[in-house]
Amino acid sequence: MAEPVEAAEGTPPKKSKKKLFVILGALVVLLGGGGAGAWYFLGSSASKEAHEEPAKAPIFLPLETFTVNLQDGEQYLQLDITLQLTDPAQVDLLKLHMPRIRSRLLSLLSSKRADELITTEDKKKLTQEILAQVKQPLSPKGKPQQVDDALFTSFVIQ
User: Fold this and answer.
1) CA-CA distance, 112 to 157, in Å (whole number)?
2) How many whole angstroms separate alpha carbon 67 and alpha carbon 152?
3) Strand, helix or coil at 87?
4) pLDDT, tens only, 113-145
5) pTM over 0.90
């Protein structure tokens, strides 16, 4: 019978692969946990976005043309205004209170001078003032109106 051959003295002893398997196992567990966490947190935000209501279509409410004498007395302002709303109930409420809104806007517009409405910045400022007047509560204890900040105007000064 042959006797087992012993390793030569110059060859290094065999290393255990047990340590490599432990490191690989820990790495797989960490990567799997990180992937699961990312899926949970990123997937849950995507599902929340999917369940949100779609944006409502805008409703445009054109107002009658405003024609007012300006403060200098020799010129007048002709203005078309279109409001952008998203709630049909707001449209009905604004239509119901349109005389009050027109009165506010006529007071604002007739207080202007022609030289206050020359530049684009002047017109943007007037647009913001009009929007502020429209958003004011319609009754003494009422809430401000829900009018979008989009307001469409066209100016004619003669």
Assistant:
1) 11
2) 16
3) coil
4) 988 888 889 888 988 898 888 888 877 776 776
5) no
Instruction: For residue 151, list its beta bridge partners.
Output: 83
Is residue 110 within 8 A of residue 117, CB to CB? The reply is: no
The rounded Cα 82 to chain-centroid distance in angstroms is: 21
Place of tokens 């030569």: 8
> Taking phi first (over 0 means left), then psi (-120 to 50 degrees means alpha), and beta for anything else, what does residue 31 get?
alpha
77 close to 35: Cβ distance less than 8 angstroms: no
- Among 126, 42, 145, which Cα is nearest to 85's? 145
Let me know: does 151 contact 83? Beta carbons within 8 Å: yes
pLDDT of residue 112 exceeding 80: yes
Give dist(CA 101, CA 142) in Å, integer: 14
Q: At which residue do the structure tokens 């995507």 appear? A: 46
Using CA atoms, how far apart are residues 46 and 43, in angstroms rounded to an integer?
A: 5
Residues 6+ positions from 111 with CB-CB distance below 8 Å: 71
Q: What is the pLDDT of residues 83-96, one digit of tens each?
A: 888 888 888 888 98
